[in-house]
Specification:
The chain is of the alpha/beta class. The chain has a single domain, classed as Inosine-uridine Nucleoside N-ribohydrolase, Chain A (Alpha-Beta Complex). The protein contains twelve helices and ten strands. The strands form two sheets. The chain has an eight-stranded mixed sheet, sandwiched between helices. A two-stranded antiparallel ribbon has the order 8-9. Helix 1 packs parallel to helix 2, helix 1 runs parallel beside helix 11 and helix 5 packs across helix 7. It is globular and about 55 Å long.
């Protein structure tokens, strides 16, 4: 059984990723930790509860950090709606756990070292805080799969950066450096991988045609982002990045091409703060800390997205 802790900031693409994990026959979601990111922590925590309500799952939710480590958090409400779920206004009265998400991640990793896979779908703030609580955390997790970065600078935020890293570059730096120092690697599903594995308008119409309660739910919460990409970005293919990362976590064999290198985070550049800098030539001598996924089986990704809404 593939046992997951999901760290997330929903976002309709986070919602689809969680739905994919819930539908997968060999996967069990053990806990969900929540950070601010796409929108503020109040909304992201509520959104996890809404998603679990629709899935009918009793999974504990642990709200975590409401701000970035150093600078104020940037959000993505322009793309995801002010509530993160497409301005749907959906609410849940599901109770939240009182333990901080970072504390709970450390507790679970120590209780069952080597058993849990961490999937990060938002800024890495909770993970950075967890590392301050337990610097040996990289040795205690089975895998870490992160939706993070834009490995050749073709970003979606601040010209060359990807949102999750841009929202808290300092946290991303802490996390990537810690994994490298531990001799471990983060499996990176970056924004550019997502753009090579987008979901077309035809794909999304097929999901609606499933005519299930979950397909109707996802159509409702993603309508705003679909309009945004057509009217603002000028395209009809939506790059739901988090499901790509989740697919890698669920089925490692979906990966068709990958490379292992050192990945650093730019912290001071006026135009490039938050950029992921990959040492493609391995020239720096810095420890390898990233297994960068370059290609996946796109057809299988589509199948997993359909399973999630069936």
């Amino acid at each position: 059984m593939n046992r997951l802790i999901i760290d997330t900031d929903p976002g309709e693409d986070d919602a689809l990723a969680i739905m994919m994990a819930a539908a997968h026959p060999t996967t069990q979601i053990e806990a969900i930790t929540v950070a601010a990111g796409n929108v503020g922590l109040h909304h992201t925590s509520n959104n996890v509860a809404v998603i679990l309500d629709r899935l009918g799952l009793d999974i504990p939710i642990y709200p975590g950090c409401k701000n970035a480590l150093v600078q104020s958090t940037h959000d993505a409400s322009h793309a995801h709606g002010m509530d993160g779920l497409g301005n749907s206004g959906l609410k849940s009265d599901r109770p939240m756990q009182t333990t901080h998400g970072s504390v709970e991640l450390v507790r679970r990793a120590n209780a069952e070292p080597g058993e849990l896979t961490l999937v990060t779908l938002g800024p890495l703030t909770n993970i950075a805080v967890a590392l301050h609580l337990d610097p040996d955390l990289p040795h205690k997790l089975k895998r870490v799969v992160a939706m993070a970065g834009a490995v050749t600078g073709h970003g979606n935020t601040n010209v060359c950066t990807e949102f999750n890293v841009f929202a808290d570059p300092d946290a991303a730096h802490v996390v990537f450096e810690a994994w490298g120092s531990a001799g471990k690697m983060i499996e990176v599903a970056d924004w550019e991988l997502a753009t090579r594995n987008g979901f077309t308008k035809q794909d999304r119409a097929g999901w609606v045609a499933l005519n299930t309660s979950l397909s109707a739910f996802f159509a409702e919460i993603s309508a705003h982002s679909n309009r945004f990409i057509e009217e603002v970005r000028g395209r009809t293919t939506n790059y739901f990045a988090d499901p790509v990362a989740m697919a890698i976590a669920l089925e490692p064999d979906i990966v068709q091409q990958k490379e292992q290198h050192h990945c650093g985070i730019e912290l001071s550049g006026g135009l490039s703060r938050g950029q992921t800098i990959v040492d493609w030539l391995d020239a720096s001598g810095r420890p390898t800390n990233a297994e960068i996924v370059l290609e996946i089986d796109h057809d299988r990704l589509l199948e997993l997205a359909i399973m999630a809404q069936g």
